[in-house]
Amino acid sequence: MATVAPDTCSSPSSPFVPKKGGTVTTLVAVNTNQTLCDVLDFRGWKYLAVKPPTGATALTFYGCATVGGTFVLIDDLGTNGAVTLTADVWASIDYTKLAPHHFIQMKSTTASGNAVCLLST
Q1: How many CB atoms lie within 10 A of CB 3?
Q2: Domain assignment of residue 6, yes or no
Q3: pLDDT class for 10, splitting at 50, 70, 90?
Q4: Residue 5 domain-assigned?
């Protein structure tokens, strides 16, 4: 597992509450600096699809299991935690890699902005 500078996990300001059979679309701020990225509350969700902001070619995923814990690189997702993306194209993210993490951060490798996230139960 790669060593990543710790970034403490805090509770998102407005956590999502999934409903059985529910689907939610939301904007999540991504940045080239991990500490400036939004935290996505993934508790209760099973599927995640992401459409990157304009100019982003990859997102690196970090996860945290508990509030107050430390984000770690989800290094078995994509290539060393990075998923290659195409502008304006949805990318399905492998749930089995995200499952142990209740909170997710996505760091952009090339551009900052809002990623559109589709979450579903």
Answers
A1: 7
A2: no
A3: low
A4: no
